[in-house]
Amino acid sequence: MAFVAVALLAAACSNTGPITGIDDLADAVSLWNDLGPNSYTFAIERQCFCASEARGPVRITVINGQIVAQIYVDSGASVTGDALGWFPDVDGLFDVLRDAMNEGAHEIRVTYNPANGVPIDFWIDYSENTADEELGFIVTESVQPTS
Predict the structure, then answer these.
(1) CA-closest candidate to residue 62, choices 77, 88, 41
(2) Residues 72, 54: Cα–Cα separation, whole Å
(3) Model's pTM, two decimal places?
(4) CA-CA distance, 147 to 131, in Å (whole number)?
C-alpha cells in the first residue's frame, strides 16, 4: 500500500505542465464543441523559426464558423497571401494537433483552457533529429464571443 502511494505521488510530481483537468485532445474538442461560440475573436502567435510576419500575433475573427478577418495585432494590417493559412481558428488549432499526433510527432506539449477546451499553448517537435522544424501556438487574447 505504501509503495502504491509513493508511486502515485512520484507520478503526480513528474507532471511538468499546469494541471488543467483536460489532458486529451478528444476531451478538449468535445468541450469546445459543447461550449464554444460559433462567432468569436481571439489572437494567436505562432512559435516557429520563421519571419516576424509568420509569427504574428494575429487577431482572428470568426463569424458563423468561418474566418472573416485576420489582422496583425501590432500594426493593424490585414494578413494576406500565403500567411492567411498560417493563423487558424480554434478548430484549425485542433487540426494542427491532430495532424501532429497522426504523423507521429516526436514531442507534443499542450495546455488546454479548462473552461472551453481551447488549446492555449502548444509546442510540437515533429522530428527529434531535425533542427528548426518545430511549431507552436500561444493564444495571446482569449476567445471572446461576438454577435
Answers:
(1) 41
(2) 10
(3) 0.82
(4) 43
DSSP string, 83-126: GGGGS--HHHHHHHHHHHHHTT-SEEEEEE-TTT--EEEEEEE-
DSSP state string for 15-36: --SPP-S---HHHHHHHHHHH-
3-state secondary structure at position 38 = coil
Nearest to 87 by CA among 53, 131, 118, 124: 53
Read off the C-alpha cell for 137: 501556438
Cβ-contact 86, 136 below 8 angstroms:
no
> Which residues on adjacent β-strands are paired with residue 78?
71
Burial label for 32, CB within 10 Å (0-12, 13-18, 19+), is buried
- Give me the mean pLDDT over the 68-85 stretch: 96
- Is the omega angle on the peptide bond into residue 145 within 30 degrees of 0, that is, cis? no
The predicted structure's pLDDT at residue 129? 77
- Position with higher pLDDT, 53 vs 114: 114
Three-state secondary structure call for residue 142 = strand
3-state secondary structure of 50: coil
